[in-house]
Design brief:
Elements (H helix, E strand, L loop, with lengths): L2 H19 L4 H15 L12
Amino acid sequence: MNLDLLMVLGLLVAAITLFVLNKPRMDVVALLVIVALWMRWRPPRARHPTPC
């Protein structure tokens, strides 16, 4: 299996577990999932051209 697929499946299992436990609120879990996915696959920064 691919590393990206394992990360997504692990994040899904963690989110489902947190939803079932209902310890943190559901909106907090959703934000954690969104931030985790964004941190993993965020677009690279644009490089500024160096002055000549």
